[in-house]
Amino acid sequence: MKILFAAAECAPFFKTGGLGDVAGALPKALKEKGAEIRVVLPYFSKMGEQYKSKTEDLFNFEVEVGWRKQYCGVKYLKHQGIDYYFIDNMYYFNRPNLYGDYDDGERFAFFQMAVIEMMEKIDYIPDVVHVNDYHTAMIPFLLKEKYRWIQAYQQIRTVLTIHNIEFQGQYDSSIMADLFGMGMERYADGTIRYNDCVNFMKAGILYADRVTTVSPSYAEEIKTPEFGSGLDVILRMESGKLSGIVNGIDYEMFDPTTDPAIFTHYDIKQLDKKLENKTQLQELLGLPVRKDVPMMGIVSRLTYQKGFHLLLQEMENLMQFDVQLVLIGTGDPDFERGFRYFGEKYPEKASIQIAFDVQLAQKVYAGADMFLMPSAFEPCGLSQMISMRYGTLPVIHEIGGLKDTVQPYNPITNEGTGFGFVDYQSYFLMNTLKQAIELYQQEPKVWKKLMNNAMAKDFSWDVSSQRYLELYQQIS
Questions:
Q1: Which of 121, 207, 212, 342 has a C-alpha 20 to 30 A away from that of 149?
Q2: pTM as predicted
Q3: What is the spatial distance between Cα 314 and Cα 323, in angstroms, rounded to a whole number?
Q4: Are 462 and 249 within 8 A, CB to CB?
Q5: Sign of torsion, CA 209 42 180 97?
Q6: How many domains does the chain have?
């Protein structure tokens, strides 16, 4: 089976979030299962020189972006066994940021048409084109409307994965002619129209053969007005082709037995060595070196979506307990100021690092006892899976992918892989933290059992990639 995987970001070349992680890991897992897969990405200038220097120029052609004839170079790189193609255009992709520019509509209109027109030129007509988020969501529509005359493309099936439905790609109706060189029929009849705009995501949902999102619970949630960002009606209408497949994590990158960033390597049979990571992290951050104090870790963007207003409301209460809190992250300036205040007020208990530090983040995953994720919504979330891989128990709001991946502690059966609260209020977060603190202090054997449960979970891409393969096979 031949698959073309199209995305706007991909680790390790350039990424802003979960989409980049998925685009980096899923194709590798699919290839290991025997799929013939190639990946196509924009050639962003942010890409590291170690990768740029290895790319080779294949050819170039012109893409008609409305009345404009735009240069399109195709570069190629084989990396870790995967064939990557990069769409090169300095005008569109030589920018300091991947997204957020005034002309994103034009940039990604160009990219999507370039991807489609490239397929014949590289002599790779896939059985399935797998597109991701709004940046590539128009490809199913374009294949069926603009390029349907190309015979080679008529049997191609499409899958759209929604990583975050909040970002939909909404642009003025004039782009149909001005960028895509198309008529207004599908806009006029309402098919791709929403809020008097062309909506890339809506077009993708309606035209793709299958729509997936990154956890079963999120697939249900986005069919409701609360989480559907206006497209819940469309998703309910198309619910027969909508499913949720939980993301995996890269087991080579996140492995406590080999991770070069952590102080001491350990596994499920050597949990005492995990304590060494805790004491050395305490020393590094200037916290009192104590094995017996429960340490809570946070590695996150500090935003309302991630729920940190709930934690700030309870910080004064939390600091009255015998705990340590280590935070690494940047985000909302008010949140940054709030956490800094508590870090200065309680230097013996809180180490607040307003920074993005990947190496330190790994040390927190390995050294902390608990990992806090009180998100308002979370399509999938990777941090809770990473923390469990390191034997660090997540404390979560039971929503989306968090609900699908963490089994909350049951005090009757002593089962679970973390702790959870349902009602989205700071009081319930604090109650759950109290439950976790007391269990850590009073029931070390039960705590160790939960650590074992968490570390034994399989969050590799092996399971998830199999589900994607089965999905491709259903439609091709």
A1: 212
A2: 0.90
A3: 14
A4: no
A5: positive
A6: 2
